[in-house]
C-alpha cells in the first residue's frame, strides 16, 4: 500500500513538473517569435527614404585649385535610384585672384566666382557588405562672375556676370568597415559651355569624406538599445517563474 502511494505521488509530481516545463517552453517560443517579428519590422526595407548630404568638392579652374561646398537633398527609391537637388558655391578662400597677362602686356588679377544649383540623379551600380559604387550625374543652372583688375594700378578692367549651365558626371566609391559608417571617394568632370573668350570653367573635381547612414544608426539604436534588452529581461523573468 505504501509503495502504491509513493508511486502515485511521484507520477503526480512529475506530471506537474512536465506541465510547468511545457508552459515555460511555450512562453519562450512565443517570446522568440514576437522578438523575431519586431526585429524584422525594425530592419524592414523601405521603398523610399530621405537623403541629406553635405558635399565638399576640390576642383580646378584655369589650373588654380578651388573648393566648392554645398548641400544635397533627395529621395532614394529602394536604395537603387536617388534623385534630388543640390546647391554649390566657391568658398571665400578659394575666390582668389588668378594672375595673367593681356594683349597689352598688362599683368592682370582675374577673380572668378561660380555658384549654381543642380538637379542630380545617382544610380547604385554595386552594393556589397563592405563597399558600394555609385554613378552620379547632374545638370545645373547658376551664375559666374569675372572680375579683372590691373595688378599694378588696381584699375578695374572688367566685371562681368555670366549665366552658366554646368553638366557633371562622376564615380563614387564608399568603403564601409562598419555597416553604418564609412569613407567615401568621389571623382568626376564638370563641363560648362561658355562662349566668352578666355574663360574655361571645365575641370575635374574630387572629394574624400565621411559616409554615415543615419537610418542604420536609428535601427541599431532601437534594436540593441531597447528591443533586445526588453525581450532578454522578459525571458529571464519567465525562467525564474
**H/E order of the elements?**
HEEEEEEEEEEH
- How many domains? 1
Do you know the CATH topology? Porin
Largest sheet: 8 strands, antiparallel, barrel
Strand order of the largest sheet: 1-2-3-5-6-8-9-10
CATH architectural label? Beta Barrel
Shape: elongated
In terms of structural class, how would the helical and strand content be classed? alpha+beta
- CATH class designation: Mainly Beta
What share of residues are in beta strands? Answer: over 45%
In terms of per-residue confidence, which ranges show pLDDT below 50 for 5 or more consecutive residues?
none
Helix content: 25-40%
Number of H/I helices: 2
- Rg over CA atoms, rounded to whole Å, is 32 Å
Quick check: average pLDDT?
A: 78
- Cα(first) to Cα(last) distance is 35 Å
Number of DSSP-assigned strands: 10
Task: Explain what you see.
The chain is an alpha+beta fold. The chain has a single domain (48-219), classed as Porin (Beta Barrel), CATH 2.40.160. It is built from two helices and ten strands. The chain has helices spanning 2-42, 214-240, and strands at 48-61, 64-77, 81-90, 97-101, 107-127, 131-150, 156-164, 166-178, 181-192, 203-212. Strands 1-2-3-5-6-8-9-10 form an eight-stranded antiparallel beta barrel. α1 (2-42) runs antiparallel to α2 (214-240).
Name the features.
alpha+beta, 241 residues, Porin, eight-stranded antiparallel beta barrel
